[in-house]
Amino acid sequence: MSDVTQRLLDTLATYPATPDAASLTLPPQAYTDQGLFELEVETIFKREWLLVGRANDIPDPGDWFTMQVVDDPLLIVRGNDGVIRALSNVCRHRYMPIALDEKGSDKRFVCAYHGWVYGTDGRLVAAPLMEGSLAFDKKDCALPEYRLEIWQGFIFVNLDDDAPALAPQLHEADAMLGNYRIDELVTGIAYDAIWEGNWKLATENGMEYYHHMGLHAATLEAEQPARLARMDPAPASARFAHARCGYAEGIQGQAEGFGNWPRPNCKFSDSELNHVYVMGLFPNMSLAMSSATHNWLSFIPLSPGKTRVVGGFIVAPEMAADAEVMATSNDLVMRINEEDAQATWRLQQVMRSTKAAPGPLNVREGTCAQFYKYLGRTLAGDRLPGLQAAE
Ligand code: FES
Ligand SMILES: [Fe+2]
After folding, report:
1. Per the structure, how many domains does the chain have?
2. How far is CA 342 from CA 34, 127, 195, in A?
3. How many of the other CB atoms lie within 10 Å of CB of 19?
4. Which regions in the chain score pLDDT beneath 50?
5. Tens digit of pLDDT for each residue in 272-314?
6. 98 Cα nearest atom in ligand 1
7. Of 4, 165, 245, 322, which has the highest C-beta tally within 10 A?
8. Ligand 2 center to residue 377 CA distance, Å?
9. Are 127 and 203 part of one and the same domain?
10. Residues 134 and 268 occupy one common structural domain
């Protein structure tokens, strides 16, 4: 491990014991260092539950989409039995990817190389001309399966076969989200892009409202002004961080495209009606909610300076069916995502500056401080003074 990576881990180990209000940003090298990135891949992205999509985006048997998570190409498919599985998208013959597109719907998957045929549950159902191959036994050639759980209608996968189950870790988050009935929401606008910056820059940006007054001055600040942002208490489970932002006077949930769609099934608290609410679920998910619409993003690293961002603007089915409302929302959501993507790129450009140094967080950025604590526990747990590593 390089000296730079060692120093970064020593610094990360100081975050868990630092009060949120006294927290500094991460050192700039944390966003560029290859050694830290490789540690993040091994410790976080090969072990933690990662959000890859919405269950109701593949509603029918045979519906599927592909997703690369670190080195693993996944084929997420709803089987003929209705069960969603994360299959290895690598043929059991000579490694060709089975599904070559981003998404589709098929009764069977036929490998493009030699025509082996797999069912929607991953079992090999046919392999042409294999008579005489002594090593071949059809039942040994199913596509391997990854761990998958559905939480609040979101599909999570885990590359670690021995990872603890996800749902029991999220009871505290469930309690915060119950009134929103997220599993009833459908994708109004799908998002999939490459952001030219480190996944942590994108993640921390996705969990605070303070940047509305700068980055989103022309889009969000008028209705959700940064001065009305406030932290929710840090959860005991430390699995997420969350914050709220009040609507500007006179707006009260009537913001165009965001807060004004009725959801008669839902019983919201006054706080939920009068604030937008953001939950940053560790390691890499942002969920920004109004009472009517949610915008989720999952930041999957490709390299220290490049991140695949998948997400969606999810809404009540009736709202998704209103073309005019969705067109307005589409313009706004894409513009806001682009503002965040641009910021991530600009930040990444300066991270190798020799004079760049950690700066103080605003108290409205306590969510970022809690994210840094998570990183400290997870990446530098063995260096924490007198503390046990999380998990
Ligand atoms: S690699 Fe798939 S059939 Fe040969
Ligand atoms: Fe933003």
Report:
1. 2
2. 22, 48, 8
3. 8
4. 254-257, 388-391
5. 988 999 999 999 999 999 988 999 999 999 999 999 999 999 9
6. 2
7. 245
8. 26
9. no
10. no
